[in-house]
Structures are given as structure tokens and as C-alpha cells.
Amino acid sequence: MPNSPLSPVARELLGRLTAAPDHQRFVGAPVAIAGLTPHDFGRLWPALEAARTLESHPAARAVGRALIEQAAELRLTPLFDAESALPAFRSVSLPAIAVQCLGWLDGEAPPALAAELRRILGEPAEWTRSIHQSYALARWSDAATRAELAALVAGKYRDATYLLAEFAMLDRLSDQAVLTLGGSDWVGIYWPGAAGDREGPGDPALALAAEPAYVAFARDALRRAVLRLGQIHAGAVPYVADGAFALDDTPVIARAARVAALRDEPWFPDMIGALLPQSCVAPTAAKTAPSQSLAIALGHSVEGVPTPEAVRALRDALGVVRHAGVQKKLARNLKPAERALMERPEVALRMLASLKSGKREQAMLASCLESGYWLVTSLDMDAWRALARSAAGAPVAQALVWTLGAGDAGFMIQSTPQGLLASDSAGRPLALPDAGRVSLWHPLAADEPERAAWQALLAARRLRQPFRQVYREFYLPPTDFSGHVLAVRRLLGLARREGWRIGYDDLLRGFGALRVGFSVNGKLYPGADGYCVSTGLRFERRDGIGWRTCAPDGIAPVVFSEACRAVDLLVSTAGIGLDDDGDGAVPDELRMLHLHRLSEVKPGRMADLRRSALLQIFAPLIAAGRVAVGERDVRVGDHAVSLATGRVTRGGAPVASPARPDGPRLAALPWLPYDEVLLERIVDTVGVLAGGA
After folding, report:
1. Cα dihedral angle (4, 8, 13, 14), rounded to 10 degrees?
2. Entry pTM
């Protein structure tokens, strides 16, 4: 607020940022920014920028780093009012930071700001290196700067007609869209997944899809590109390898395609169906392409924002492409695109009419419906009935349990000559409304009697569900996945197949609006080997241009459960034991050697060793029919103890592991070539569940 005094915490921070202490290594008390307001933060900005320079005092740099880190953790961003805006921009020298600061203006920009932005832009020769960033600064500058920038862009990119058309259209975009374009790292190149994981503005197509002017531009740009490729393939334009489009044009065309796909525009299917196949194959027998760069950029775009027609176009392109390098890159996009399409159920189900009643088609539909758990998807009654009556969808829909809303009991359907007949878990007929929304039933939303009733009904009808639903495991907070020793090669192999992205020391996966990070104590990268120890989970939601950590209690229960279920799959498959480093029973060198050897053992061999030990330990109880050792778990009555993690469930519901009573161990453990902490936990748990026998 103009002329308002600094708060006490802001005054203290300002003093520590500007005053030199007696000794350069004396930093002072820990930095605490609790109580700092956005406007106070804005007025500290000049001092903070000065503290970032190499010439600043080491103590001031340390305070500045701590302030930035705490502000990022709290998602605190500065606001610049009429009083603080000009000093803040005078302290900025980098165009990228200036674009970010423009987004923090609170109110009208002061007139003198134009001159500061012109200074930050630097020499005109540098303006065209990042034209979207330069345009964002020029918009808040003056007319002369904008005119000079336009002339420079027209001269340098005279052959990039699509880029020039996009640049000419920027005047019609909102300020927020311009700042998103100017601040994004993904304007010139787009990598699916990575664009959403990094801090800062993600794919600018997300913001541009809400801009009518850009949507109109996207349609015209794609129409022109289709026409251009059509002329090349018809022989009306001479074919030149990689000559269909300028290199600077292909990111623009691919961005236009993502905008159309995000909006699921009705005109997009025909355009992408022509664009992708024709861009990757020559009209002659040559093993070249009209535009390698466009074909590859469109492949990334289809993976990032898939539609049924775009995925089909990607398959068609793979069927005709002759260029080995392009074929290899497009092939990498296909499976992730198919998996990502399943996470847009409302779009993917548009394929129903064209799908045959085959196992592959039914599996694809089942995956699409299952993703609705963490996407919180529901279908309107007409769309659901169309699914239940389609050739591919009917067998899937009739094997699943559905619900009309939170708190409502589930129902199943059967197809009869009179239409769809619905019934509850007791087999009693139900009348379905003509309108409403239908979603998949989840065992977490039901009580134990209802879960047991559905399990009994499935057993009586001998129904095989397309995915585990009625017997689905579910998880409740708090759920801890730390302390598991994991084979890195198996972990990364499964993680990539399941859609996790590899970070520096964690795996990342999106579950709708939620991002889950599974952290380990080692470095992860393609080709990594050996073992690591899991250190836990974190949950984050996108908050503007960054990610905000959220507590499990603030996550929808079904979404939390599904995220934990995905992590449990990683732990169960890659796990080789529990971290028992604290007991000191085994020397560190010997323990590390054992774990390295175990990380090379095939998972089937590990399970066989553990299973053989349990068969020996519980032989009397197995003979008496009280314990059964299966492929994945040990069953005691209606309880199941996982062989991979020791987790206890009852009918899919989590159960706290019972404590072993004091006294001697329930059974002698045979020697195994690995640390026996996990085996001991399983033996103790099974023994207690079996009544201490």
C-alpha cells in the first residue's frame, strides 16, 4: 500500500539484507518470514536483487537465499504497487525476471516504468533472440519500442510466415496470456511431462486455449499447413526434403495443434489426420520427409494432449514413415500418448462407435474407465448408456459396479431385450433415473458389509472384472512408504511403463490435478543400477506457476488411495527388503554387498525364496488349513499379508499390523541370503493373526 510503513518482520529483513555484519561469516539468527505480506515482499525486492550479486556481502546473500527458499515454500510472491514498482524494476537487469515481475504489478504501471523496461531489453540486436519475451516487455514500454521490435522481427524471420502471423496476433491477447508466452521455457520446444513438472509457466498452450483470438489463429495456421502439405503431395509444389516449413514455424504449428486438442475442437480431427502422416513421408519413394521438425513436434504434442483422432494419426504416420530417425522418435510417442488418452475419459470415450468388440479394445476402455478414479470422472446418463450398449463397451460396463453419486449404493447392469436392467448387491432390481451422472463405484466409499456383499455376488455369478474393482486395495492416511530397499533397475523399468517420470532423486506422476513424488536416497537416471531406499511420498498441486505441497487430509480420499496404490505397486515389484540399517547386526560392507547382489536377482526368484521359507515355517498351520501361502501373499482367514511389503489387508481394506506379544519368537527363521527384517515382520504378523500358534 502506498506510503504505508514496513511491518516489523520486513524492517528486520531489510536491515539484514543491507547492513554488513562485523564478520563476513556471521549470518545471524535463522531467517523467518512469517508475517511478511506480498506488498512488504515487493518493497524488499531491490535489496533482495542487490543481495543476489557477487559483489554483495556473503551474509546478505545467505539471508537472500533463505528468504527466496521460504517464500517459494509458502508460495509467497511479491506485489508491486505505485510506490514499490519503480524501485523494484530499477534493480532488475534480466529480461526473464522483468517478465516475471510484470505479473506481480498491483494496479496501473507508473509512467516511468517504460524507460526501465526499455533499459532491461538491452540492445535491439538482442531483442529477436526471444521475441515473445521481448514483446511482453515492449507491451508495457512505449509505442516506439513496439514498432522497432516489430520491424526487427519482420526482418529476421521473413521466411517464417507462421511465426510472423502469430507475432502480429499478440496485440489481441490478454496481458496474462502475453506474460505466459513471454515467461515460458516451452515456446520454442515442447517436451510432454517436463513442461508440467518444472517451476514457472508450463506449456503456454494451456493459457492460449482460453484466448478467442489465438484459437482463431490456430485454426487458420493448421488449415494453411494442411493445404501446404497437400500441395506438396499432389505435386503442385516441388518437393524439397525438410523444405515444407521453416524451422521457426514448426513450434508455432505444433502449439496451434495443442490449443485445438485442449479445446477438442470439432475441426481438429480432419486436420491432424492429414498433418501428421503427410509431414513425415515424402511424396516420392525417398526416405526423407517434408518436415522432420514438424513431424517430431506434432508427435510430442499428441503425446502431451492426445485425442482419439490424434492418436490414430500418430499410428497412421508410423505406418507410412520411411525416415528411420523420425520413425524412432514417433514410436516413442505412441504408448505414452495412448496412456495419456486414457486420462481424458470424456474425450477417449468418443471412440466407442468405431471400436470393435475385441479384447484389445475392451482393455483400452477398461483402462480409460479405471483412470476415472483419480481424475474424478463421471458420465452423464446418455453417455453412460451409450457405453453400456456399444459393442466394445457392453462387456466392460456389465462387469463393473457403478454408482449414481457419493454416498449412494452401487449397482450392476445386465442387458435384456427390454433394455438395461440394474440391480443392487443383493440382486434386487433398481430403477435408474432418466438423467443424472454415473461414476465407478469404489470400495473406499462403501462400508464393509457392502464390500462383502459385492464380493459374494461376483463369486456367485463367477464374474471376471476387467480390472480389480470389488476386491480393490485401498489406502487411508497416514500411509508411509519409506524404509523399503528397492532394486533400481526394476524400479525404473516399472515406473516408466506405469507413466512415472524420472527426477533427480524421485519419481513423479500426475493423478489428475495432483502430482505425487516418490523419493529415494539415491540418484535416478535411465540405466541406473544397484539399490536405493525409499524416503517417502509428497503430494503437490499446481498453484499458478509452481507446485504447492498439500497434506494427505486435503486430498480426495479415492485420489489419495489410488496414488498410494500406484506407489505400492512400485514397492512390491522392486522391493528386496526393509531398511534395517539401524540394528547394526550386519557390517555395513557386507550388508551393501548383499543388497547389490539382491538388486540383480530376478523378482520371481526373490519371491520363491521368501515363499519357500514361509512354507517351511508354517507347515503345521498350512496342513491344518489355517494358513495359505500364495503367489503374492499369505492368507490367514480373510486377512492377507503381502509377501513384498508385509502390508495387512482384509477384503482389500487396510488393517493395522498386529503387534507381536513379548516373549520368544513364534517360529525359528531359516537362513536366507538377505536381511530378514521383512520376513520376520511377515512371520510375526501371520503368527499373531493365526492366534499365536
Report:
1. 40
2. 0.76
